[in-house]
Specification:
By secondary structure, the protein is an alpha/beta fold. The protein is built from five helices and eleven strands.
Length: 230
C-alpha cells in the first residue's frame, strides 16, 4: 500500500500559519518522541504544525488507558502514550493528523479545540455525502453509531500535540482485539465502506489536503505546505 505523500516546495513558516508536513509511513514511537521534542523546544516564534502520516500496526493506550481493554493483541505491539483517552489502533490505511499548536497564542482551550477537530472531520465527510456526528462524553466522530475518527490530545507547556486518526481503508480486524476507546462492543467503520467507489491509492492525497485545510481554516491559520521528515 502506498504511504501518504504529497510533493511540495519548502518555504519558511510564519506565525499565523499552519505548517503542514506529509511524513509517509512513520514509526509511532519515533514520531511521538519527535512531537514531544518539538513541543519542548518551541518558543513564541515557532510555527504551529500539522503532521499527516500513517503508522505501522500498533495499539496505543492513552493516559486513562487500562490493559484490560487490550483483550488479545497477538503480534501487534502495545504502547503506553501520554495522549488523552483509552486504547485505540493505528495501522496502514488510517490518516493520522497530529496537531502541534500553541494554545495560548491561539487563545483556545482544549474542549473547544476538540470540538473544532471533530467539526473538521464532520465537514470533510459531509462533502462526501456522509452524515456524521459526535457523542456527548465520547470524543470522536461517528457514522450511524460506528466510530470513524478518534481524537486524543496532550497539553504540555501551554501547547498541544497528538490529534486525529481517521479510518480510510485500514484493516478493521485489530479493533476486534480491543475495547475501542474503552467501550466493549463499540463498532468502528471506515471511509471505503461508506464510499464503495473510493480509490484510496488515488484519492488519499486529496483527503489529506482537505482535512489539513479544514483544520487550518477553523483555527484561523494559513495553510503552509512542507515536506520534512521527523
Amino acid at each position: 500500500m502506498n504511504s501518504w505523500f504529497i510533493p511540495s516546495n519548502e518555504g519558511s513558516g510564519t506565525v499565523g500559519s499552519l505548517r503542514v508536513r506529509f511524513l509517509g509511513l512513520a514509526d509511532y514511537h519515533k514520531t511521538w518522541r519527535a512531537m514531544r521534542r518539538f513541543t519542548d523546544q518551541r518558543d513564541s516564534r515557532s510555527d504551529d504544525q500539522l503532521w499527516l502520516l500513517e503508522h505501522p500496526p500498533v495499539f496505543t493506550l492513552g493516559q486513562a488507558g487500562r490493559l484490560e481493554h487490550v483483550r488479545s493483541p497477538g503480534d501487534i505491539p502495545v504502547l503506553q502514550t501520554d495522549r488523552g483517552g483509552q486504547v485505540t489502533y493505528h495501522g496502514p490505511g488510517q490518516l493520522v493528523a497530529y496537531l502541534l499548536l500553541d494554545l495560548r497564542r491561539a487563545g483556545i482551550g482544549v474542549k473547544r479545540l476538540v470540538h473544532l477537530l471533530e467539526e473538521s472531520v464532520i465537514t470533510l465527510l459531509a462533502e462526501q455525502g456522509i452524515d456524521a456526528s459526535t457523542r456527548l462524553g465520547a470524543p470522536g466522530v461517528y457514522v450511524n453509531s460506528a466510530k470513524i475518527a478518534s481524537i486524543g490530545l496532550r497539553v504540555r507547556r501551554g501547547c498541544c500535540y497528538h490529534g486525529i486518526a481517521l479510518n480510510v481503508d485500514l484493516d478493521l480486524e485489530p479493533f476486534q482485539r480491543i475495547n475501542p476507546c474503552g467501550y466493549p462492543g463499540l463498532q468502528v467503520t471506515r471511509l471505503i465502506d461508506l464510499l464503495p467507489h473510493l480509490m484510496p491509492d488515488l484519492e488519499r492525497e486529496k483527503i489529506a489536503v482537505q482535512l489539513a485545510r479544514m483544520v487550518a481554516d477553523r483555527l484561523g491559520l494559513q495553510f503552509a505546505q512542507s515536506q520534512q521528515q521527523v
